[in-house]
Amino acid sequence: MTLRIPRLIYFSAFAVILKIMLASTTLSAAETTVAQLATSTHFHGISVDQADPSRPYLATHHGFYAVTLDGNAKRISSNQNDYMGFTPHPTKPSVLFASGHPVGGGNMGIITSTDRGKSWKKISAGANGPVDFHQMDASGADPNVIFGVSGGLQMSRDGGRTWTVVGTAPEGTIDLSASAKSVTTVYAATRRGIYGSVDNGRSWAPAYTLLKTATMVQVASDKMLYAFLPGIGLIRTSEPPISWRVVAKEFGRSVVVHLAVDPTDSSKIYVITYDSQSRAHAALATRNGGKTWSKLGSK
């Protein structure tokens, strides 16, 4: 994911480079720490278990992990596959969706877990697949609707079993998120700003006034729309996106690339950050709505 923008880039080219760097690497220890994982793998996504909010999940380049607030991490997937695209089911805690690559290479298409990430099975190759969704999200408006980006904007209306190309993704799309209010509405974070489509990607319009790079967009479990723009910070609005407010300003040199909100307490927010200079990822949390942040495991 290399973009020539304020030195703060993360996206396609980096992902390709990282895959090459990590292709022959395996993580031997199933139990480790988030800090150790950050030095040896790539974080592709984060979510919070709806039934147990003290249990965040990390989708990584080398397997699927459950982590604790004190920074411990345990691989719960039976494999060390690359869980690239990742999204939890909006209403069923045990159900998760992902895309990516098996250890031996190739594309996995769309896979699902019904036991909180322990075992995974392929449910579809996607349209013109097998696909490797880097951007993927399930709709809070209809849990059967899932969007993914590969050869255009793809949509499933039956929980990921069948897919059709319904539209296009904006040029330079970095992240994608489905609306919590409308099954035809989807948002994209791009190199040129935050965009929204109300017609399944057939047309797009700016969803934020400043047309500058956005590194993340996410409709979270509190049904608020979050995004991150370097130089502005982490921002939030209700749907439709009319009035944005800043949740947290800059994270040093890092940008926010993934976000999850505690489904039982919206003041508890988790983010994955990326530092383009050190190429380091980190998992941070706030317990006061973004006023202060700390790395998982730090006191």
Task: Walk me through what this model shows.
The protein is mainly beta and 299 residues long. The protein has 2 helices and 25 strands. The chain has a single domain, classed as 7 Propeller (Methylamine Dehydrogenase, Chain H). It has a 5-stranded antiparallel beta sheet with strand order 1-5-4-3-2. A 4-stranded antiparallel beta sheet has the order 6-7-8-9, with no helix packed on it. The protein starts with 11 loop residues before the first helix and ends with a strand. The relative contact order is 0.13. The N terminus is likely disordered.
In short:
This protein has 2 helices and 25 strands. It is mainly beta and 299 residues long.
Core attributes:
single chain, 299 residues, mainly beta, Methylamine Dehydrogenase, Chain H, 2 helices
What's the CATH class label?
A: Mainly Beta
The Cα radius of gyration reads 17 Å
Number of helices: 2
Main pleated sheet: 5 strands, antiparallel
What is the residue-averaged pLDDT? 90
Quantity of strands, as a count: 25
The portion of residues forming beta strands comes to: 35-45%
In one word, what is the shape?
globular
- What low-confidence regions span 5 or more consecutive residues with pLDDT below 50? 1-28
Q: What is the CATH topology classification name? A: Methylamine Dehydrogenase, Chain H
- Written as H for each helix and E for each strand, in order along the chain, the element string is HEHEEEEEEEEEEEEEEEEEEEEEEEE
Strand order of the largest sheet: 1-5-4-3-2
CA(first)-CA(last) distance: 32 Å
The tally of domains stands at 1
Query: Going by CATH, what is the homologous superfamily?
Result: YVTN repeat-like/Quinoprotein amine dehydrogenase
- Proportion in helices: under 10%
Structural class category = mainly beta
CATH architecture: 7 Propeller
